[in-house]
Amino acid sequence: MTEFESIWSDLQGVAFEQGYLDAAGVRTRYLRTGDPGQPVLVFLHGSGGHAEAYVRNLAAHGEHFWTWSIDMLGHGYTAKPGHPLEIHHYVEHLMAVLRAVGAERACVSGESLGGWVAARAAVDHPDVVDRLVLNTAGGSQADPVVMRRIITLSMAAAENPAWETVQARIKWLMADKSKGYDDLVASRQRIYRQAGFVDAMRDIMALQDPEIRARNLLGPAEYGAITAPTLVLWTSDDPTADVTEGRRIAAMIPGARFEVMPGCGHWPQYEDAKTFNRLHLEFLLGH
């Protein structure tokens, strides 16, 4: 029998806080650990996701960083602006969060959509982004098959947040399809059942629209302008893009480090937290 995986057991023993802050008028939910005297690290989740994507990484990173995992703009329990969300909206929100916590500089680590936002933030705000991690990051290409799959799974889960539809969306992220991911499913189900979340999900899905996506994509000029030391982290079983695409992104970023985690899908930070935390911290601490 497989052991039951619980978000709470992942956080047991971790001195963490869940709360809300005001980021330029946007009520923003966060999970936070570490000491305010430490350098700031912000984790950014993927499209339709939430702060719990990083529950298995807070303890390890809290030893070295004032660590924040936020619900991004329009996601989770953070305020929903009520319009289609493009990358600059997320970047503006991230900068507002950093101002709200008094951070002039921060390490930013993003998965999927979060990686897209983190990369754009590093391009637009080189004075703010200290080190950058792009974890199975989006934003480098427009694959119509993947885009349709994301829209189909995400809208199905938001429009009918039954156990099966939400679980299908979670399992799509993972290499190991044998697990139920019950606690993650229950957490996301609660988020998707919020009043008005179908409209919120439509706004999140804007970046899967070919025309909107095209004007937000990052290419050689953008990646080439990144000055922050960068780790591009990919996986053997990422459902959005293969290792070749991760390697291509890394090749466009001056001096970027590239790592592949085997046996993981779109959430290596969850599926193999031990390896992720080791690679991530080695990079962030400059080892």
Automatic annotation (TrEMBL):
SUPFAM superfamilies: alpha/beta-Hydrolases
Membrane-crossing residue ranges in chain numbering: none
Coiled-coil ranges (or none): none
GO cellular component, one term: membrane
InterPro entries in alphabetical order: AB_hydrolase_1, AB_hydrolase_fold, AB_hydrolase_sf
Residues in AB hydrolase-1 domain copies: 41-277
Secretion signal, residue range per the UniProt entry: none
GO MF terms, alphabetically ordered: hydrolase activity
Domain of life: Bacteria
Keywords of the record: Hydrolase
Protein name from the UniProt record: 2-hydroxy-6-ketonona-2,4-dienedioic acid hydrolase
Annotated organism of origin: Mycobacterium saskatchewanense
